[in-house]
Amino acid sequence: MAEPSFYIGVIGNVISVLVFLSPVETFWKIVKRKSTEEYKSLPYICTLLGSSLWTYYGIVTPGEYLVSTVNGFGSLVEIIYVSLFLFYAPRHLKLNTIVVVALLNVFFPIAAIAATRSAFKDEKMRSQSMGFICAGLNIIMYGSPLSAMKTVVTTKSVKYMPFWLSFFLFLNGAIWAVYASLQHDVFLLVPNGVGFVFGTIQLILYGIYRNAKPAGLSNGSSEIAEDEEEGLTSRAPLLS
């Protein structure tokens, strides 16, 4: 009979897949309009970076194949997103985007994998060093939900923090935190524990401000809010 962690991991895979697919509507709009307009590429580039490194972590860590499967799927999805963005981006943004993709999605993963493989001969040490890198990157990426929460409090509006995406990201963090606890995997537990806490705070803020009268948005804060709405998919470790 399979261990409880397997069933928890399968549930986590399903939830993570739903979150990975959440920007499909955005990219359908981009394809229809044949332009990226004001959408930002960085959230998808960062999510691709995290997913690719977590895929490698799942491969080199015994018993973590559920981590590699969902993040392998996520990497493929994010490659499609980034490719569509490159194809439809305005000419003045395309070169800059290509440079960022080359640095974060090609050079950095190759350098990280090569460094861990050359620095450590022991597979366990390689796994732990990659887990440290992945967890660190995910924690850094939590700057996005902090900004989103600040926008909600400032504007007294949840317009740029969709409930269902917040809920699924909260659920994603909770499920993977439980999975990490059962697997005794601190590298999965720490970022997902942080994600669970932030998700809980977001849902509380949603409950407080969902019927509140929105404060006036300046042009600058409106642009920031739009950026944050498009960056929601990268604000939690997926999977992890």
From TrEMBL:
Gene Ontology MF terms: sugar transmembrane transporter activity
A single GO BP: protein homooligomerization
One cellular component term from this protein's GO annotations in UniProt: plasma membrane
Membrane topology: Multi-pass membrane protein
Gene3D superfamilies per record: 1.20.1280.290
Keyword annotations: Membrane, Repeat, Sugar transport, Transmembrane, Transmembrane helix, Transport
Region described as Disordered: spans on this chain: 220-240
Subcellular location: Cell membrane; Endomembrane system
Ligase among keywords: no
Source domain of life: Eukaryota
Membrane spanning stretches: 6-30, 42-59, 65-88, 95-116, 128-148, 160-180, 186-209
Entry similarity comment: Belongs to the SWEET sugar transporter family.
Job description of the protein: Mediates both low-affinity uptake and efflux of sugar across the membrane.
PANTHER family hit by this protein: BIDIRECTIONAL SUGAR TRANSPORTER SWEET17, RAG1-ACTIVATING PROTEIN 1
Protein name, as recorded: Bidirectional sugar transporter SWEET
